[in-house]
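Entry type: protein chain
Record version: 2
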Amino acid sequence: MTCALVTGCTKRIGKTIALDLAKQGYDIAIHYHSSRQEAEILRDKIKSLGKNCQIYQADLSCDEDILNLLPRVKEDFAQLDILVNNASVFEPATLEKTEMEFFNTHFAVNFKAPYFLIRDFARIYQQGNIINLVDTRIKKNDFTYSAYTLAKKALAHLTEMAALEFAPGIRVNGICPGWILMPEGATEEYLEQLRQRVPMRQQGDKSQICQAIRYLLKNDFVTGQLLFVNGGEHL
């Protein structure tokens, strides 16, 4: 086993992904933006599993931070087998309500950062696996999250384009999660509405995202795919 870099992995789905990869035997490079304490706690937990782990602060809305991240990881890990582009900004705003700074931040973190991290992974490491966390929303045109949704649609197309360009040395795939995390302050009535929107009539689990990643890593004949882990919601 070698090393995996997971962006935005101090909380929620990213944290679960990093821990699962460590349990599979990978050393972990943790990227975080502002949650240093959480990053240090996660680093110590991964080290307790007997794996090497380093943390890297970077603001993925800043060009310089984006471009410096992979070279910094290279200093500590000569070989990086996996890049998981998990970091995201997810805030509501319709087209009418979206201001320039809001738009720029969403496209920087959700699209531009993965774009250049993929480029640098190919330049520096030249082989391995890239997994992009996309979103079930790419199948819809929900304008209430207009900048976020459009950035994720672009990331989906980037996944396919990069898979074509960097084959056969690098496989690039995407995962499109559906209802995995519990909405804050959700009432039982609202949760029932969410269940009715999902053909499987249930909420997903973070472990199912990890199962999807394990599949994509193990099947070396799969590239350029977007795997929907959403109970059929996109249908």
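Comment: The chain has a mean pLDDT of 94.
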